[in-house]
Protein 1
Amino acid sequence: MARHWYEEQARRRGPRPPRVPAEASISRRQQLVALLELRAMDFDELREALRMSVRGLDEALGHVEKSLKHTGQELVVDPAVCSTCGFVFTGREQRHFHPPGRCPRCRGERIEAPRFSIRG
Ligand SMILES: [Zn+2]
């Protein structure tokens, strides 16, 4: 009996990579909240603890910030600081949570990552 072409294709491709269930990212966010309720952590510490990409953590922090508003809590962001000249990254630069690449004032690249905590 002839196989359907798609069965043949599937057989050649071998087993599919496991799909990451949607719950995975949600529980990641819950872990993120749990960590920040314990103590303040900076971007790089969080990334290491949760094994997330820069972009993934950036998005997760955005979600957490929004969802906390419904609970009366608040995501507190201590902005990134340039280690060379002390420039503080407040304002627009802060809308992204990840550390900026370089300082607009001295062009230095030694930037202390922003720190996060949860208040409330
Ligand atoms: Zn600087």
Protein 2
Amino acid sequence: MNARKGREAQWEKEGYLAVEDLLSEDDLAKLRYRFDDFARQGQYLSESTDRFKLTSFESISDPSAIQGNAVQVVAEPHEIDGQIMELARDSRILDIVEIALGPNIQLYYSMVFMKPPSVGNNAPWHQDFSFYAHTRADLVHVQIYFDDSTVENGCLRIVPGSRKLGLLNHFKDGVFTGELQGDTSQYDEQEVVLPMKAGGMVMWHTMTLHRSYPNKSTKQRRALVLAYKNPDVRLMGGAWNTSAEVRSVGLMVRGQDPTGQLLSAH
Ligand SMILES: O=C(O)CCC(=O)C(=O)O
């Protein structure tokens, strides 16, 4: 089986792909500088903005840890940085995304995701689709690592094949929690731990169950997250089968939008 066929088979069966050595050391160096810049800009903010999501780390007792606010998320960095925009359109990434979505690919959103040393965030089991229901689950998330992502600094953990479970319950007492509810022990047992070297990428299906632990190491873990979708998949909202439904949102990065929605007037 050639590499592409092997990846297609793994994607179909397991709902994730891990690709090492996607970016070169040069690619990484250019963007690490930019990530440092984002972290510095965050130091001047006293509260989160639409662009910078700060997390307060004051309660952490480890004296070597960051104290006070630190940037955890930079939203839509491709809008403010040409190199990140270029990366979102990079054929090395899109060739992998094409395995999941086919030839027409839309960038849905982007995010710089930082896990500072000793404090980075805990993400319990969840399916990304629970955050943004669409008319079909033809969406993927890509994480590109700018530092080694290790067991110690809170690497990604996924449940292979879980995309086929459909959407599971993330509600408690009628309120959305962003976290899988109920007994999760069967998923704990099935999880695959995915440490990756800087320059590698993981792609997972929007229904694939995943989680990560906080960063317990002294090393930061920075990643660029790119969410892509098939352009004929529509965000649910309004009347789903009429022209009044919510319009497709995003930037075409490969192929065409067969629905014409991005150009249509309604
Ligand atoms: O990489 C992580 O630590 C968690 C990422 C995650 O859960 C997500 O992007 O949905």
